[in-house]
Specification:
The protein is mainly α and about 550 residues long. The chain has helices at about 25-40, 60-75, 100-115, 120-145, 150-160, 180-190, 195-210, 215-230, 230-235, 240-270, 275-280, 295-300, 315-330, 335-355, 360-370, 380-400, 405-415, 435-440, 460-465, 485-495, 500-505, 525-530; strands at about 5, 15, 55, 425, 445-450, 510-515, 535-540, 550. It has a four-stranded mixed β-sheet, with no helix packed on it. The chain has a two-stranded antiparallel sheet with strand order 1-2. A two-stranded antiparallel sheet has the order 3-4. A hairpin with a 7-residue loop joins strand 1 and strand 2 (about 15).
Length: about 550
């Protein structure tokens, strides 16, 4: 690949003769259509009934449905108070206890504002996340190799793999298109120094940060490694690209301030920091890189490797062979060769960091790069490994000149990862009794009973989702972090309907109580007669499954 220097010896570096086919809107449209089709296949049969099918047997799904709904509800009304979410009342910055998911929420906002349920929004945004991740990776690899089929193969590999297809409850683990977009923008900026590439880098980093704290950390690590590894490419024009790159990074930091501040407050004021001991529990294991949830692999040889991994990262045999071809091929030269080096370097780093505290590297980075201290699941650094493998496989496939062979390889990559058809849970809607809270006059503070202890806080998932029907302050909550205030209240509220537990609820400002009699322990089955005999509990309504709403009088 050759370059020429323009503008009197100081300017953009452009490709002269790399024989790459031009990226046309028609090629992009075809590629996007394939990505959408693959997203429908890999989540099948979700597209058949996206408003009725759900993964709500997992509290993380319910949490993320709530986050999307909260952002869509609050952002147009009070954007400056976006992080003062309604759960875990009276804790502040409750949205910062989880991923912000602002970008996915904006994608689903038209559906929510048109009356779509949180489950419908989540499912359509989930499918869109898969398709966009595949398409973004296609754009990167197609741009680098000039091969339409190589782009589709890499996009398939990064969007649909054993890791992403086991994380359907985690919308942030599917909307990872910012990583290939950031890499494409950074590569262009370092080579050409164009302001357009700088703006694209700022946009890509914003997409990452406003989706997930993990993604912005992954992007930073990836950029640092890729920049150092490709130094021979951009060092000759560093006087030109250096200031522009610095300007883009400075502007990125400024754009990230609004999302940084609430997380910083949560870390400093509410001690939301992850210790290395906690990170150890959520680190990958070497076995995880041999574990594959794909139906073919799991049923034949890989199932036994699922005994202990936090996450699975086996990329597939097709990907391994193609990536090896890219690494071993000797005729690559110039920019392509250094790109392969850079991609291989951050892929290796992702695999090592995914092991967490099992190696000294994670602990070192944890101390020198403070944003790492907000991460709990070190295993998710495996995304960098999978992205690197997908790109390398794209390079390996780019040399294949027969379309039939290339298409067959794309089919193989998808077949190795395929887990569909999935089993989904029916969603009958949020019980109508919750809508009564929306119209209650005066200040309202809700507590749901049973009020689970911190070790069972995930059982609050349905409470959190149901609060989307009223958006009143809710003392229950579920998130990636449980604040100290919840611990304090749970110590008393758990013993409801004991007199002293009810008094503690009144002292905390609770005005309304939602009671789920069927969820109480065996020795509390008489909870309804006890409440009916009390003058301070006014029954407002009874919903499905005997869910009861009471007004708590002073």
């Amino acid at each position: 690949m050759q370059f020429i220097r323009q503008r009197r010896g100081v300017g953009k570096w452009r490709r002269m003769s790399d024989n790459l086919a031009p990226m046309t809107s028609e090629r992009r449209t075809r590629a996007l259509a394939v990505c959408v089709l693959l997203a429908l296949i890999h989540t099948w049969p979700l597209a058949m009934h996206p408003g009725r099918y759900s993964r709500n047997d997992n509290a993380d799904t319910q949490l993320n449905e709530w986050i999307l709904a909260w952002v869509e509800h609050e952002l147009p009304r009070a954007p400056l108070h976006l992080f003062e979410a309604n759960i875990f009342y009276p804790a502040h910055d409750a949205l910062a206890f989880s991923e912000p998911l602002i970008v996915p929420a904006l994608l689903g906002a038209p559906i929510a504002w048109s009356g779509g349920s949180p489950v419908l929004v989540y499912n359509l945004v989930l499918i869109a996340g898969f398709a966009l991740t595949a398409f973004a990776t296609f754009l990167l690899v197609e741009s680098w190799t000039g091969s339409f089929f190589a782009g589709l193969l890499a996009g398939s590999a990064f969007a649909f793999n054993t890791h992403t297809l086991t994380r359907l409850p985690h919308i942030q683990g599917i909307h990872i298109y910012s990583l290939p977009l950031v890499l494409l923008a950074a590569d262009t900026l370092l080579r050409e120094g164009s302001w357009k590439a700088g703006a694209a880098l700022v946009g890509g980093l914003a997409l990452a940060a406003y989706t997930s704290g993990y993604l912005i950390v992954f992007a930073a690590v990836m950029l640092a490694i890729f920049g150092v590894a490709t130094l021979p490419v951009w060092r000759p024009q560093w006087r030109f690209v250096g200031p522009r790159t610095a300007a883009a990074l400075a502007l990125s930091a400024l754009v990230l301030v609004p999302i940084y501040l609430p997380y910083h407050r949560a870390a400093t004021e509410q001690h939301m920091l992850r210790s290395l001991d906690l990170v150890k529990e959520y680190s990958a294991t070497p076995r995880g890189f041999l574990a594959s949830a794909g139906r073919i692999h799991f049923s034949t040889w890989s199932g036994r490797f699922f005994k202990d991994p936090v996450d699975s990262f086996f990329p597939g045999f097709t990907l391994i062979v193609l990536a090896a071809m890219a690494l071993l091929r000797r005729h690559e030269s110039g920019v392509s060769r250094w790109r392969i080096v850079g991609v291989g370097a951050f892929a290796a780093a992702g695999a090592v960091l995914a092991l967490g505290t099992a190696t000294p590297f994670y602990g070192w980075l944890y101390h020198v790069f403070p944003p790492m201290q907000g991460l709990r699941a070190a295993a998710r650094f495996g995304n960098l490994f999978l992205l690197g493998m997908a790109i390398l496989a794209g390079y390996g496939a780019a040399g294949i000149r027969r379309p039939a062979v290339a298409i067959a390889l794309i089919v193989l990559v998808n077949a190795e990862a395929l887990r569909a058809p999935f089993t989904y849970q029916p969603f009958a809607g949020i019980p109508s009794v919750y809508a009564l809270l929306r119209d209650e006059p005066g200040p309202v503070v809700v507590a749901e009973q049973p009020f689970y202890p911190p070790w069972a806080v995930f059982l609050n998932g349905s409470y959190v989702l149901n609060s989307t029907a009223h958006w009143r302050p809710l003392m229950n909550g579920y998130s990636g972090y449980t604040p100290d205030t919840y611990h304090q209240y749970a110590n008393a509220f758990w013993y409801f309907p004991q007199e002293w537990a009810i008094k503690a609820m009144k002292d905390a400002g609770v005005t309304h109580v939602v009671v789920h009699p069927a969820a109480f322990r065996r020795d509390h089955q008489e909870v309804v007669p006890l409440l009916d005999a009390r003058s301070d509990f006014e029954l407002l309504g009874i919903g499905a499954d005997d869910v009861r709403l009471y007004r708590l009088k002073r």
